Amino acid sequence: MLVDECLACRVLAGKVQAPGGVIYEDDYWVVEHSLNPVLLPGYLIIKLKRHCEHLAQLTPEEASALGGIIQNTCSALSQIVKPAKIHVCSWGEQVKHIHFHIIPRSSTMPIGNLKLLIYLRIKNLLNKLGLSKWVSDAEAAEISQQVKQILLQI
């Protein structure tokens, strides 16, 4: 079941499209690039294909598939963008649909979760003011296709 008010559900229903489209999909999970404004090259989202708001409500099959998808996605992303670190996190406050942010941190970005979040917020504000640019949809789509090709081989 998908929920009209849920951004993740709208993406899954094809009402909103991530740059490069679906990178990976199985019976339970979908991997796509983050939406516009695209924050960072390779900032990916792994989301459950059905609307569910709590990890405790995952089926055993959904839970079992998740670890491999996170590992394979991080491995492929490492090969493409060569980040200093990849952060995997889930907040689920604004978009309550279960999803995970896969955030590659380059060596020029600050180390530390809080510092990284502050950096992203400042960069987003500068982007809104026209003083800084995020990644173009075309660049995000290209990275998506490269990650997809690696995941097809795993």
From TrEMBL:
Pfam families: HIT
Residue stretches making up the HIT domain: 7-116
Motif Histidine triad motif: chain residues: 97-101
Protein name: HIT family protein
Source species of the chain: Nostoc flagelliforme FACHB-838
